[in-house]
C-alpha cells in the first residue's frame, strides 16, 4: 500500500475528530474525572492514501519526559492489513525517539476486547503489563434494598466512639486533601494535582467524611461528584487504625442514599484492579461495563 505520513499541528485536531475513537470516547470519563492540566507535548500523525490524498489512519501521542502515551491509533477498515498501521507506528517511534523517549505505552486507550489491536501491538514488540482499569456503571435503583436498609437504620451506633459522619464542607477541604495524600500516594493514578482538582468540583452533599469529634480531624472519606443525573465515585480513604469496622461501605451507602432520594439515576466508578476497594466495588456493580488494559514497548 502506497501511503504517506503527515504531521498535523495539535490545534487542527478537529480534522481527525471522527477518526479518533478513544480520544472522542474520553468525553464519558471527562464528565467525572478531574483531568490534570496537560502540559505534555501532543503529536498527531496522519496516514494518507497517495492515490487520492484521503486520510486513512491517525496516531495521537502525548510525550512527557521519557515516556510517550499512544492515546489514539486508528486505521480505517478497508486499509487494514496492508502495512498502513506498521508505517504509521514506525513514524510514531521515529518522532518520539528524536525526543529521547524510552518507553511507548498505550496509557488508557486499549480496551481488553480489542484483540485485533492487541495482536498488532504484540507483533510490533509491545508486551502486556498487569494494569487493568475497570469501568463500572449501574442504576442506583439496583441498590434500592441496601439504600432502604441504610435510610431506616440508625447507623450512628456502628460508628466508633468519638466519631461522626458529616457532609463534605469547605472547612474540611485541606484536611481531606492531606488524608488522601497520606494514604493514596503509592497508587498508580495518584497525583496531587489530580486529587486537588477532583476535590474542587466534588459534591458537598454526597461526599461523606468521618470526623473525629474531639480534634475535628478527618480520618475517613468517600468522594463523589455529580454530572447531570449520574453520581460518580472518585475515591475513598480511611486511616489504618479504624479500618475493619465496615466504615467505608457505610460512607458509600450514606452518600448513595442521599443521591437516590434526590433522583440521581446512575452511578459510576473507575478503578484499578489492584485498588484496595476493587473487590468491594465488584460485589456491588457485579460486572465491569468495560475494561482497559495497558501494553508498552521499550525503545
- Report the average pLDDT across residues: 84
SSE class: alpha+beta
Please give the share of residues in helix. Answer: 25-40%
Q: Regions with pLDDT < 50 over 5+ consecutive residues? A: 23-37
> Rough shape?
elongated
Task: Estimate the strand proportion.
Answer: 25-35%
Count of separate DSSP helical elements = 8
Summarize the helix and strand pattern as letters.
EHEEEHEEHEHEHHEEEHEHE
Could you give the topology of this structure?
Elements: E1 3-8, H1 21-30, E2 41-49, E3 55-64, E4 67-75, H2 84-97, E5 103-105, E6 110-111, H3 115-123, E7 127-139, H4 144-152, E8 163-167, H5 173-184, H6 192-200, E9 208-212, E10 218-227, E11 230-238, H7 247-261, E12 266-272, H8 278-285, E13 290-298
Helix pairs in contact: 4-7, 5-6
Supply database-style keywords:
13-stranded mixed beta sheet; alpha+beta
Note down, in words, how this protein is organized.
The protein is of the alpha+beta class. It is 29% helix and 32% strand. It has eight helices and 13 strands. Strands 1, 2, 3, 4, 5, 6, 7, 8, 9, 10, 11, 12 and 13 form a 13-stranded mixed sheet that branches. α5 runs antiparallel to α6. The longest helix has 15 residues, at 247-261. The chain is elongated, with a radius of gyration of 22 Å. The relative contact order is 0.16.
Amino acid at each position: 500500500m502506497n501511503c504517506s505520513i503527515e504531521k498535523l499541528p495539535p490545534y487542527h485536531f478537529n480534522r481527525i475528530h471522527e477518526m479518533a475513537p478513544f480520544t472522542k470516547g474520553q468525553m464519558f470519563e471527562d464528565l467525572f474525572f478531574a483531568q490534570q492540566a496537560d502540559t505534555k507535548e501532543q503529536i498527531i500523525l496522519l496516514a494518507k492514501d497517495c492515490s487520492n490524498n484521503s486520510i486513512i489512519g491517525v496516531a495521537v501521542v502525548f510525550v512527557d519526559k521519557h515516556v510517550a502515551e499512544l492515546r489514539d491509533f486508528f486505521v480505517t477498515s478497508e486499509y487494514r492489513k496492508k502495512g498502513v498501521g506498521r508505517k504509521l507506528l514506525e513514524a510514531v517511534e521515529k518522532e518520539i525517539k528524536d525526543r529521547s523517549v524510552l518507553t511507548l505505552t498505550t496509557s488508557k486507550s486499549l480496551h481488553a476486547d480489542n484483540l485485533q489491536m492487541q495482536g498488532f501491538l504484540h507483533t510490533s514488540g509491545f508486551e502486556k503489563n498487569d494494569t487493568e482499569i475497570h469501568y463500572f456503571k449501574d442504576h442506583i435503583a439496583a441498590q434500592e434494598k441496601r439504600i432502604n436498609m441504610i435510610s431506616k437504620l440508625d447507623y450512628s451506633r456502628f460508628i466508633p466512639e468519638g466519631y461522626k459522619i458529616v457532609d463534605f464542607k469547605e472547612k474540611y477541604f485541606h484536611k481531606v486533601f492531606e488524608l488522601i495524600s497520606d494514604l493514596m500516594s503509592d497508587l498508580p493514578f495518584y497525583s496531587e494535582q489530580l486529587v486537588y482538582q477532583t476535590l474542587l468540583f466534588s459534591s458537598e452533599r454526597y461526599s461523606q467524611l468521618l470526623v473525629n469529634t474531639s480534634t475535628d480531624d478527618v480520618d475517613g472519606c468517600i468522594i463523589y461528584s455529580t454530572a447531570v443525573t449520574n453520581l460518580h465515585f472518585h475515591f475513598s480513604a480511611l486511616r489504618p487504625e479504624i479500618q475493619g469496622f465496615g466504615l467505608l461501605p457505610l460512607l458509600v451507602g450514606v452518600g448513595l442514599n442521599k443521591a437516590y432520594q434526590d433522583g440521581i439515576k446512575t452511578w459510576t466508578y473507575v478503578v484499578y484492579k489492584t485498588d484496595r476497594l476493587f473487590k468491594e466495588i465488584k460485589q456491588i456493580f457485579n460486572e465491569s461495563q468495560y475494561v482497559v488494559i495497558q501494553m508498552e514497548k521499550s525503545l
